[in-house]
Design a protein that fits this description.
The structure holds two protein chains of two kinds. Chain A contains 14 helices and 15 strands. Chain A is α/β, with parallel strands linked by helices. In chain A, β10 and β11 form a beta hairpin. Chain A is elongated, with a radius of gyration of 30 Å. Chain B is built from eight helices and five strands. Chain B is α/β, with parallel strands linked by helices. In chain B, α3 crosses α5 and α5 runs antiparallel to α6. Helices cover about 40% and strands about 10% of the residues of chain B. Classes of the chains: A alpha/beta, B alpha/beta. Chains A and B meet through α1, α2, α3, β1 and β3 of A and α5, α6, α7, α8 and β5 of B. β3 of chain A pairs antiparallel with β5 of chain B. Chain A: InterPro entries: DUF38/FTH_CAE_spp, F-box_dom, FB224. Chain A: One of its GO terms (biological process) is innate immune response. Chain A: This is F-box domain-containing protein. Chain B: Keywords: Ubl conjugation pathway. Chain B: It holds the Pfam family Skp1.
């Protein structure tokens, strides 16, 4: 008689599919059941929605480290041995995390304990160790450029699509980073701090946000062309530049005006629409004081479609918000950016409210018991009496550009 | 030998015969076999979809008649479902199943493992994935000791494999080992 099939009789490659369906905590519980289950867990890949590493250390201060792991509907916080724990997730070559955020604050720049631990752990994980993630948010203070670069290099360039820096990085480090494969293959790049950057380093990305200290109209035009001449284009946020030098669209090369097909202008800014290489798509460039933005929109777009692109250009911000980092780490400006900018078509100015003239008060005894309305001698100053000339509806400031102030600012 | 017929009486032109390990024959509509990559490939290789080709019975030595009966029930239920598309990466696991599936897989673990083997052998991805998720749902949220009970695992360790703490009966050693891990509350709405 054939023996009953048990858990321990199921082939490991089949059990692996069950294990990958488990949440992170249940994996550990199953792993502690037996040696074979421990081996199964150690060799099964982990697929996570997000990992957040927060390391804070300073002179004469206790180290405050937290590793947050998000899978399915739960978030797990781990406080001890987080570097080893985090890196061991990727020891299995097929493990993958959609979002990885690394925040390191070291006030003691001479303390290299962290990096030593990281180096030793990566060595123990085997050669060519890589963190396989789609999006990276990196913010460090107090560690050297070499170590930041070392952390950056840990990520698998073949999978990394989005890079976001939360801190200002040195020109030397930036020049090293821009030469990496991860940078060249990245589809989204974001800098949250102002710094001088070369626009040529960004022409390959699909989404870009940075704060150049100075940027010329020629470089901005180069960026616009990079979007409008692409053969593959998706409807999404393109770029946003906030710069410090003062110039306006009249400084663009003549090709800028020649190739834009429609323009709205107002006192606060202007909107230009460019044709693209992709059917039914157009590129919208909004220019306001010291800010230039570009979006890929569908033809005949409406404000709702535009706003849906504009409001959340970076999914990483949404991911960080979901971890309520601000509350946990008491970081006043973290996540750093939550744009609330929208544009709308010019709208007709509503016609002014016309106040009816006061009734004529006549002799009560002559007209009977009609209500007597007191004479109002102070008319509303902004209202118009019907004996004034009619105001045409298209007179007034063009409000095609409408900017809602950012709540975080 | 008995011959089991599916509810929709297939004609000889549009069906094949499969033979289970215990010698029972089953008539299978070619439409149903599309869900099994193993059978679909076999039919394609031997051109059993052509009416002028003689169709020999297909022996399925790894599958018993009871399992085959169960699998045919699954194939018939999902006859008109769209083709299963497996995602490469599962970030989160859904343990929500339709009522029919819950009733269909309301079977003991040993039968579940056998069905898992059969689904893997016949390469029926929708069934295989569903069994994996059902099994995961039976493990999720349980302590190590409870998992041992559910899966009938005979532990071969005296101490917890992670912490080294001796395993005691009716205690969750893995929970002790993860004392530094705590489930955080759900994020507040932004």
């Amino acid at each position: 008689m054939k023996a009953e099939t048990t858990w321990q009789g199921v082939p490991a490659h089949l059990k692996e599919d069950i294990v990958t369906s488990l949440d992170y905590k249940s994996r550990f519980r199953l792993g502690s059941c037996s040696k074979s289950d421990r081996a199964l867990i150690d060799t099964s890949p982990v697929f996570l929605h997000g990992i957040e590493v927060y390391i804070a250390s300073g002179k004469n201060q206790e180290t405050s480290n937290v590793l947050k792991i998000k899978d399915g509907g739960n978030s797990i916080e781990i406080a001890n041995n987080i570097i080893v724990h985090c890196l061991h997730i990727f020891k299995q070559k097929r493990s993958f995390a959609k979002n990885v955020a690394i925040v390191i604050h070291y006030s003691d720049t001479e303390d290299t304990t962290l990096m030593k631990e990281m180096t030793e752990t990566t060595k123990s994980c085997g050669g060519n160790f890589k963190i396989r993630a789609k999006r990276l948010y990196l913010k460090t203070t107090g560690i050297s450029d070499q170590h930041v670069f070392q952390v950056f290099q840990l990520f698998d360039s073949n999978l990394l699509e989005s890079i976001e820096f939360g801190h200002k990085i040195s020109d030397e480090l930036l020049s090293r980073i821009t030469k990496t494969e991860s940078w060249k293959k990245a589809k989204e790049i974001c800098f949250n701090k102002a710094q001088q950057l070369q626009v040529d380093d960004f022409l390959h990305v699909n989404k870009l946000r940075f704060f150049p200290l100075l940027i010329t109209p020629e470089d901005t035009w180069k960026l616009i062309i990079a979007f409008t001449t692409r053969k593959t284009l998706l409807r999404h946020f393109g770029f946003r530049l906030n710069f410090l030098n003062d110039w306006n669209p009249s400084h663009f090369p003549p090709e800028f005006k020649a190739s834009s097909i429609k323009t709205y202008t107002s006192a606060t800014g202007s909107v230009y629409i460019f044709p693209t290489q992709v059917t039914h798509f157009m590129f919208v460039v909004r220019f306001s004081r010291r800010r230039c933005e570009g979006y890929t929109c569908e033809e005949g777009y409406e404000i709702s479609a535009f706003r849906s692109i504009s409001l959340n250009p970076y999914p990483m911000s949404e991911f960080l918000n979901s971890f309520h980092v601000k509350k946990t780490f008491r970081y006043p400006n973290f996540p750093p950016y939550r744009p609330t900018v929208a544009v709308r078509y010019p709208q007709l100015i509503p016609e002014p409210h016309i106040v009816p003239p006061p009734p004529i008060i006549l002799n009560y005894f002559e007209y009977g018991p009609f209500p007597i309305v007191p004479l109002n001698l102070t008319y509303p100053t902004n209202d118009v009496l019907d004996d004034t000339p009619t105001v045409t509806s298209n007179v007034g400031p063009d409000d095609s550009l409408y900017i809602v102030p950012d709540k975080n600012q | 030998m008995s011959c089991e017929e599916p509810t929709t009486s297939p004609t000889p032109e549009n069906n094949i015969t499969v033979v289970s390990s215990d010698g029972k024959e089953f008539l299978l509509d070619l439409k149903l076999t599309e869900q099994s990559e193993t059978l679909a490939r076999l039919i394609s290789n031997f051109e059993y979809d052509r009416t002028d080709v003689k169709k020999d019975p297909v022996p399925l030595g790894n599958i018993t008649s009871a399992q085959m009966q169960k699998i045919i029930e699954w194939l018939q239920h999902h006859r008109y479902y769209p083709k299963w598309e497996q995602n490469d990466i599962h970030y989160s696991t859904s343990f929500t199943f339709e009522t029919w599936v819950e009733e269909y897989l309301n079977i003991p673990n040993n039968e579940m493992f056998e069905l898992l083997n059969a689904a893997n052998y016949l390469n029926i991805p929708r069934l295989f994935s569903t069994i994996c998720r059902i099994m995961a749902s039976r493990i999720t949220g349980k302590s190590a000791e409870q998992i041992r009970t559910v899966l009938n695992i005979k532990t071969d360790v005296k101490n917890d494999v992670y912490t080294g703490i001796p395993i005691q009966e009716d205690s969750s050693s893995s929970e002790d080992g993860m004392s530094e891990i705590s489930l955080s509350p759900s994020p507040p709405p932004i």
